[in-house]
Amino acid sequence: MADSQELIDALDNRVRRRESRRSFFTDAIGAAAGSAALAMGGRAAAQSTPTPTPSPSPSPTSTAAPITDADVLNFALNLEYLEANFYAFAATGSPLAAADIAAGGATGTGTAVAATGGRRVTFTDPAVAQYAREIAADELAHVRFLRTNLGTAAVAQPAIDLSTGPTSAFGRAAVAAGLPATFDPYSSDENFLLGAYIFEDVGVSAYKGSATLLSSKTFLEAAAGILAVEAYHAAIIRTSLYRKGLATPALIDATEGIAAARNALDGRPTEDLIRGIAPNDDQGIRPIATPDGTASNIVPVNVNGIAFSRTAPQVLNIVYLNAAAVTAGGFFPAGVNGTIKTSAAST
Fold this sequence. Notes:
By secondary structure, the chain is an all-alpha fold. It has one domain (2-34, 68-319). It is built from nine helices and two strands.
């Protein structure tokens, strides 16, 4: 218990050192929430002009509510809740504290639900243990950063399933990737890395894909900063798996299976080499052939060296573990909180 408290105190101290970077974000949130913002597929359609005749004007054409910057940031907050709880369980044995998951105020939606099913990993590799603690601190900082600056608009943490077993989200994800349904990300260093691998590449593509939805340059810079951190995390996980996979090829095979499952879930969008959009936007860590010899595949990019993007609905396809248009499932059994909550009907 003492060790756990010391670790939690250390994580809190790490977060407090970053508090000074948060204030720039606060003033802009109110303005962005009230401004006209980008909808998921583009600008909302204009309302019909009333017919200039003596007869009553027709009712305006109904349109979907515009997506605000606050909506986009709350979508990101749901994903941060998922990652932060996974790493908190792995590093400390406990989920996020109640103070870090409640709705921000009257305009924040949802009732906070503690994440369930995770447990502390008994690490045997000191480097992996330290990576887990570092990433746990970063993800907690992201949660607190977004919550503090969304203020009363911050959504509560939804139900999050981090349990193991054939019917759990991890179990179903494992089966889709060709792994046993009994896959347990808390049972070993290697399985922890595979569990982290399920999330990390998705987080990078989610932040990159959401960039076009943000109207505020302040928010865009903040999101770019978080994307960079998520990319560092993904590189840590991919590098660790690659090194271990040189001795245990089954680990590399597992990443290929996970990548294929994510590709199957998020559809086949038309390729755009400049924006980093592709029908196959996921890669495992199998070594690749180059004119100069075999190379590692730590960084998943297209032929232009550009990282891939996913739309918010595509990201939800993956975390809901469903290729259809649904509002809940997988790691979020009751869905995410906020305006952006429906996955795409993949084709």
